[in-house]
Amino acid sequence: MTSGHPRLPGANRAATGRAFSNPTDTCPRPLWLSQETGQAVLDSDGSLVGHVVDLSVRLDGHTGPRFVSRILVQRRRGAPDLLLPWTAIVDFGHSTVVLSEKFDLATHSDVHALADDEILLVRDVLDTQIVDVVGRRLARVADVALVRTSYARLELVGVEVGFGGVLRRLGLTRVATHMADDVVAWAELHLTSERGHTVQLNTPLSAVHHLDESGLAALVDRLDTESAAEVLAITDPVVAAHVVNAADPLVGERVLRAMADDDVADIVGAMPAEHAGRWRSRLGRAPALLGRRFLRSQVWPRRRNRGRRIR
Questions:
Q1: How far apart are the first and last CA of the chain?
Q2: Distance (Å, rounded) from C-alpha 305 to C-alpha 123?
Q3: Which string of DSSP letters, residue by residue, matches 143-180?
Q4: What is the pLDDT of residues 142-198, one digit of tens each?
Q5: Any alpha helices (H) in 145-210, and if so which ranges?
Q6: Within a domain: residue 106?
Q7: How many CB atoms lie within 10 A of CB 143?
Q8: Count of domains in the chain?
Q9: Element containing residue 251 per DSSP (H, E)
Q10: Which residues of 161-174 are buried (b: 16+ CB within 10 A; e: fewer)?
Q11: In terms of Cα–Cα distance, which of 155, 173, 202 is closest to 26?
């Protein structure tokens, strides 16, 4: 095993349960990320600091709600961006965000690196593809659903993948109100952006760590080859062997060829002798599409981090 990720266990794996089919059924009316960025950020004396361009969330190992932990502020005249903690905010409004007088901007004069389990919702989620692991579909994120809690926090609840989200962002709000929201709960999705995919692989509570063999096979079939290989690399070899055998042979071959030799040996070695022999023979031959990138035509390459200096 060459991957630095812990392997997904083969035992006690169950399909992720649906927390709710639509956040609006059990939660307050959602706020939309596209409408909760762009505000002016003011310090305690009313001076303009910059504008909100992104919100961050940590996907760490604790159970429970996922709250916005920091805001990314773009400053004027080429000044470095600021990544400010939620504790610095006294009022997060629709048009302005006001910082606490107790918060010292001098200690946050430059952008701080993201924590290992932290993602940016605009950069890493909005307008990317996600895999709905319950509905087993690949969908594009039109918006990100948040709710405001009773103690003035923003909680991440899911992503909107319906056309209503697109219309809302185009300013066609009245038309969008006549369309039902199509929201995938956060606990039921896998991100395909470079940062999102990596963080979820390293976060034990993410959906990818709680899929059965059938769910993993559906996920692998919908990811690009590189990402699918990374999922199998952290999966118990016995489970991974079942996933490969259940997949289309061309997909299985592409994914195995993208993996480290040690990982491939572990997976093939966990197969029944007859299957293992066929796969060793197949992998021993030159690939049919030698020299071409192994991306299935229905899957977009995952988004790479561009533009922002933070990682």
A1: 26
A2: 8
A3: EEEEEE-TTS-EEEEEEE-SHHHHHHHTT-HHHHTTS-
A4: 999 999 998 889 999 999 998 777 878 787 778 777 777 789 999 999 999 999 999
A5: 163-169, 173-176, 194-201
A6: no
A7: 27
A8: 2
A9: helix 249-257
A10: bbebbbbbbeeeee
A11: 155
- Whether 255 is covered by a domain: the verdict is yes
Of the residues 120, 155, 187, which one is the last residue of a structural domain? Answer: 120
Q: How many CB atoms lie within 10 A of CB 176?
A: 19
Instruction: Tell me the whole-structure pTM to 2 decimals.
Output: 0.82
The secondary element (H helix, E strand) that includes residue 10 is none
What CA–CA distance (Å, rounded) separates 55 from 33?
8
The Cα–Cα gap between 22 and 159 comes to 10
Structural domain boundaries, residue 277 = 211-286
What is the token pair recorded at 110?
Answer: 């430059």
Q: Indicate which CATH number applies to the domain containing 215.
A: 1.10.220.30
Helices (H), 11-133: 23-26, 121-124
Residue where a domain stops, chosen among 67, 92, 120: 120
Cα–Cα distance for residue pair 224/60, rounded to 1 Å: 25
User: What CATH number is associated with residue 94?
Assistant: 2.30.30.240
pLDDT at 216: 94
Rounded to 5°, the CA angle 162-167-172 comes to: 150
For residue 62, is it within any domain? Answer: yes
Q: Which regions in the chain score pLDDT beneath 70? A: 1-27, 61, 108-112, 288-311
Query: Residue for token digits 């796969």?
Result: 279
Residue 116 located in a structural domain: yes
For residue 296, the model assigns a pLDDT of: 43
Q: What are phi and psi of 217, to 5 degrees?
A: -60, -40
pLDDT for the residue numbered 228 = 97
R_g (Cα) of the chain, nearest Å: 22
